[in-house]
Design a protein that fits this description.
3 helices
Length: 85
């Protein structure tokens, strides 16, 4: 017998994917922080196979966009910026 997942269970399952691992290069948080660091505009995306490996994923759901924005916002508030001097 199949049971329907609650909304909370669906979110918990989604957040277990590698795109939500803040320490993984190419993850949503990592890409958001990197875009902020390099002075690039917001462009929610990530690389499932690591930074610049494989195809860039841009077709994101709301939770994924929030994770990208969290990285961008974190670096804007606590990180540093690339010096182009």
């Amino acid at each position: 017998m199949l049971r329907e997942l609650t909304e909370i269970q669906r979110v918990e399952q989604a957040l277990q994917g590698p795109q939500f691992d803040r320490n993984r290069h190419g993850s949503l948080f990592d890409r958001g922080a990197a875009d902020s660091y390099y002075g690039r505009p917001r462009d929610p995306h990530y690389y499932p196979e690591g930074s610049y490996n494989g195809q860039k994923k841009t077709d994101l759901n709301d939770v994924e966009i929030q994770a990208y924005n969290a990285g961008y916002d974190w670096n804007e508030q606590h990180g540093d910026k690339k010096s182009w001097d």
